[in-house]
Design brief:
The structure holds 2 protein chains of 2 kinds. Chain A is of the alpha/beta class. Chain A contains 12 helices and 13 strands. The chains are: A alpha/beta, B alpha/beta. Chain A binds chain B through residues 1-13, 29-30, 33-37, 39-40, 42-43, 189-190, 192, 216, 218-219, 222, 230-231, 234, and chain B through 73-75, 440-442, 445-448, 450, 503-507, 510-511, 513-515, 534-535, 537, 550-551, 561, 563, 565-567, 570-574.
Chain lengths: 350, 590
Amino acid sequence: MSYIKSNFRHPNAKVNDLGFTMREYEGALSTLCAGCGHDSISAAISKAYFEMNIEPHRIAKTSGIGCSSKTPAYYLNKAHGFNSVHGRMPSVTTGANMANRDLQYIGVSGDGDTASIGMGQFAHVVRRNLNMIYIVMNNGCYGLTKGQDSATADIGSASKKGLPNQFSSIDLCQLALQLGAGYVARSFSGDKNQLIPLIKGAIEHKGFAIIDVISPCVTFNNTAASTKGYEYVRDHLDATGTIDFVPERQELKIIHPEGTAKEVQLHDGSKLVLKKNTHDYDLSSKREAMDVIESVREENKILTGLIYLHEDPTDTHEKINSVDKPLNSLSQEELCPGSNKLDALNEAMR
Amino acid sequence: MKETNIKDYNYFHKVIDCQYACPAHTPVPEYIRMIAAGRYDDAYMINWESNVFPGVLGRTCDRPCEPACRRGRVDEEPVAICRLKRVAADNKNNITNRLPKIPSQKNGKKIALIGGGPASLTVARDLMPLGYDVELYDDQFKAGGFMRSQIPSFRLPETVLDEEVNYILDMGVTTHLKETVTSLKSMLDKDYDAIFIGTGAPRARDLPKLEGRKTADANVHLGIDWLANVAFEHTEEIGKKVLVLGGGNTAMDCCRTARRIGGIDVRIVVRSPKADMKASPWEIEDAEHEGIPMYENHVPKAFVCEKGKLVGMTFERVKAEYAENGRRTLVPTGEPDVLMECDDVLMALGQMNAFPWIERDLGIEFNDWDMPEVDKTTFQTSLSNVFVGGDAAWGPENVITAVAHGHQAAISIDKFCKDEDTSKRPIPGTTLISQKMGFHDWLYNAPVSDDLRYVVPQVDTDLALSNRKIEVEKGFTLEQGLKEVQRCLNCDVQTVFTQDLCIECDACEDICPTNCINFVDNADEDILRNNLKMPADNLEQSLQVSGELKTKRVMVKDENVCLHCGLCSERCPTGAWDMRKFLLNEAKAG
């Protein structure tokens, strides 16, 4: 039996600004099926945080139940984590975020965990615009229970069982758009060049960011008749444009020809540079984004890339005017200001 | 880049750094796994087939394999390959029944071997099982050549050498010992079908013109001759104060031998900086461990004699200056000369070949350096039935190189005797076999040990210095050896990529601990090397490049620091990666 990852790394392994190598951002060895798209997403998450120079202990990773929700074990071993109940990742993350707004929150979920059992929770965390990244590892099937069609399986798509799905599929990006998400993106586990910048952009986005990542299930849903297999997805990708993430400090080195690239300023001064292709629309227009998703679908293609961005959203904390500091840093006096303050408050209510 | 042709055996051979670096191409990882499995006889025989003297080489080899070892590029030190060979030799049982059978019906061809060192013995080893009559000539009373005369017994016990020399002589080699060949012509007249010359590089360099050389002669000794005299017990003692001139392995053997037979203040004095000394680092270390100081940048100036007897030497102080092309010059510092008192001086300044016994009118071409012209592939001279190998061919090398020469010369002699073209060389035997047993199950031990290199235990220094026949190194205990073998990365278990099966899920790329695997757009090699996740800046190491994949990209694997851990293959859903053991056995005569 092997299945032990060696402790040796490349002798010239890169070090980030914090002095860490990728090893500090990795997790345990995956126990998912060989070739699972989820593992690629895990690797992309590790890489994004490594390159963003974020200390792992400033990150909290959460998940629900399912193949996807096992993955927090496989990335960011040194981060905080909570593996919650099926479909309840959003409420656990909400609670954590309310208690400590200084951490960065990344929740992963699957198509079942989000679009079936967790649909109610998903809808409300989007509505509230909680400052978190919500990654859906979307494979269109219930891999952990042997591959039944999930709610994101397209009509007519057939998994290993061979029977075409008859029910309408849920498009999580459209749903999120409608519910008010400020950062909506779709990607493919097999395209890290696109996925990593999207995660970086989501890290910098203040508010709710959803990335719906199509992630083939090699065991149950990688058939020729499936619309979520490697081959089908690769053949039907249609990106909104290529994306570069430019950190605040770094000067923009690549200058795209005028009219072909667009810079999007994020709240901390870093930028997303979008190099447009055929879909040249206003990224900040919900209506146009909806329209592009629909028209690309009509061509039997899958729209990927950054689909919608609200550049200046108001997150939950701002909406409810909560205290600026994490609760664990509040002093006794701040938490319990005394009877005089209470009397004054009561007086004000009369 | 063009798709890598992995069917060319050279590609995977080069990945096995140790085997590729070994002149005899011993399948190192294969015998290391045999040791791990407790199959010491098998481990020994793999060595014996390839390098003929596993017990000797396990103690004394120059180990070109170890600097090449891949482990040295990911860990602090390479695998102790050499000393593991000794583990195999120390723990084997009686292997005589596994030695090749010698046909009683001879093939009627007679071969003479001149010189009884490792090159000649290897020729005998390869030709005897084919039915040749082999006759060996040596001027000493026992065969073994420089392995016997120059390697001191505290590094190589005589019993070990005798055992391995006798495996060959007992095949029925006719020996003419204590017989000095003084004329090649007379040998040619004896109607041998072929003659192999393996006489080594027997002439030590001297400092004939140095002031006082003649007067001091009684106490000035040529290193290799002196070592031989000690080995054959003609010399039994030396003065208390000894200077050893030279910085090679012979110098290390001289000083350590001197410490054992009377030398108390024994010093190494070299012209160059210590860093430029030619001796193997471990031999320098062993000498220093025995309290031998090394004086660098001292150029010998004169032998100082009083009343016709040596009393010391003077040296000029120099410093090394390096020109832009790396060429070194030793420039006097202007400091006053240094006088070192001494009773004896040992000169280990290098060796030369000498062929006063080869008549120059026999048809053998000699080059500008008065050396016979020898073909680099066939080891044949311009006189087609005369072959040369070992140090005799192109100057001093080492035992393992002599063995490699012997194998090649034997192939040539066999072909020559069969009237075949000696320039057409046989190709090595190779196999490539999948190691997959199950999901996470391999025929080899894939996980990589984190252990640091184990240190070979030695006897107490005082005891070692008390008797020149006490072997200094005790060899790994079996327990240590079995841990050291686990440090081997199994570089012969190759990562074989089948492009048609790949679905480009990136699983292999993500799991690889050392970022060897890349899926990128194809480009020319120099561009491609820089476009990888980790730039492939070790140009000596190959890139394995696939043909174009469905996405128009190619798979590029940098072989440089691959741990051969098999994770790429375990994470591959389609079997596009497989771990296959590549075994290469160098072709031999017959």
